[in-house]
Amino acid sequence: MGRRDLLPATLLALFGLGLHAALAVPDGRVLAGILPDTDSYARLIRVRELRDGAGWTDQVTPSLTAPEGLFLHGTLPLDVLILGPALALHAFGLPRDDAILWAGAVVCPVLHVAAALAAVWAARALLARRQASLLLICRQGTVRGEGFRARLLAGEVPPWLAPVPRPRDLAERARLFRVLPDPR
User: Fold this and answer.
1) Which of 40, 43, 126, 143 is the most buried if burial means most Cβ atoms within 10 Å?
2) β-strand partners of 177
3) pLDDT tens for residues 2-56?
4) pTM for the full model?
5) Taking phi first (over 0 means left), then psi (-120 to 50 degrees means alpha), and beta for anything else, what does residue 162 get?
6) In angstroms, rounded to a whole number, what is the distance separating the alpha carbons of residues 113 and 18?
7) What angle do CA 33, 37, 43 make, to 5 degrees?
8) Do residues 82 and 104 lie in contact, with contact meaning Cβ atoms separated by under 8 Å?
9) Three-class SS of residue 35?
10) Which one has a higher pLDDT value, 124 or 163?
11) Does 84 score more than 90 pLDDT?
12) How far apart (Å, rounded) are the C-alpha atoms in residues 48 and 50?
């Protein structure tokens, strides 16, 4: 991302983190160590078992649904993303189980923001590579929320788009923009 993309990327990151904070903090449950659902507890138990020496390829968590254990499929990548920071937090003095809880609470918002930034970066790269030069936004339909379309129709145009003059009859039905080339 170039310098001119820094402000939108920063705002996107702050929005993502704010969204997670608004969902997790209002009732204080996550801050008190209370998780929202049983899947969250199962994940933390699996990470704790990995930390305590369970096999990396074990997909059954024996401490859940005894005597067979609970089959957790496809969780190892996320488990590792939680376990790494948890081990670091424990090395800095946080109790082992608290370290797993806090690492799990922080990893998801960080991954959400990273995915959103990657999507913006990929979209810009695809537009540039495909040499898309125009963007047409229709005015028909109800505009809800504050998404990209709503902001464009409200006149908030990002610096990588330039409004294109259009005939009066089209102006009432749509807005047309030219995609500016990336200066890099």
Assistant:
1) 43
2) 135, 163
3) 565 566 677 777 777 777 666 666 666 676 777 777 888 888 888 998 899 888 8
4) 0.59
5) beta
6) 10
7) 75
8) yes
9) coil
10) 163
11) yes
12) 5
User: What is the spatial distance between Cα 8 and Cα 116, in angstroms, rounded to a whole number?
Assistant: 11
- Per the listing, tokens 């009432």 go with 172
Summarised one tens digit per residue, pLDDT across range 93-143 is 999 988 998 898 888 888 888 887 787 777 777 666 656 677 777 777 666
- Rounded Cα distance between 138 and 171, Å, is 10
What is the DSSP code string of 60-128?
EETTSSTTT-EE--S-HHHHHHHHHHHHHHHHTT--HHHHHHHHHHHHHHHHHHHHHHHHHHHHHHHHH
Tokens of 66: 């005894």
Query: For the chain, what are the domain ranges?
Result: 3-128, 133-179
